[in-house]
Design a protein that fits this description.
alpha+beta; single chain; thiol protease; cysteine-type peptidase activity; NLP_P60_dom; two-stranded antiparallel sheet; endopeptidase fold (from Nostoc punctiforme); C40 family peptidase; 5 helices
């Protein structure tokens, strides 16, 4: 992880996605400015079909606000996002992040691949799991994961940021 973090810092990555503004002309000849975030990274070709469907389902919830205990598009919490995403392939995973943490085989951070679950504590150095996300992209340079943030709702972030690395507890590969 330290290698990934250092290379991200050197390239200036690991920050929140920037907003892109584009200008276009309307039919009436007026200039229209549209702000948007860049699209999600494509799902790698070597990802199994079921995991690709789980990731696609999770991404379909992007922008849904955070709601403790939520499992719908009106509001969703972190473990609810994964519970609903895996339900798309008829896999019933536990509902809480603590139960999800023992639902798969533990893996090292260097072994992360799309579909793996990553677990975090509330503060740096904590060993108590309070948050979960799912890896969507894993390359030697970067690991992206999707989760439901209490402040931003369902969003993808880089694992290499100081915030998430300092709170990282463990990762598991789901049982399918």
């Amino acid at each position: 992880m330290a290698r990934i973090k250092a290379s991200e810092r050197a390239r200036g990555r690991g920050r929140a996605p920037v907003t892109v503004k584009t200008k276009s002309k309307t039919a009436a000849g007026r200039t229209k400015i549209v702000s948007r975030r860049p699209g999600a990274a494509p799902i790698a070709a070597n990802v199994s079909r079921p995991i690709a469907e789980v990731i696609q389902t999770a991404r379909s919830y992007q922008g849904v606000p955070y709601k403790y205990g939520g499992t719908t598009r009106l509001g969703m919490d972190c473990s609810g996002l994964l519970h609903e995403s895996f339900a798309a392939i008829n896999v019933d995973i536990p509902r809480s992040s603590n139960e999800q943490a023992v639902w798969g085989a533990p893996i090292k951070p260097q072994e992360l691949q799309p579909g793996d679950l990553v677990f975090f504590g509330a503060s740096p150095g904590s060993n108590t799991i309070t948050h979960v996300g799912m890896v969507t992209v894993a390359t030697p340079e970067s690991v992206q994961f999707i989760h439901s943030s209490s402040s931003l709702g369902v969003i993808e972030n880089a694992l290499e940021t100081d915030y998430y690395l300092s709170r990282f507890i463990k990762a598991v590969r789901p049982r399918l």
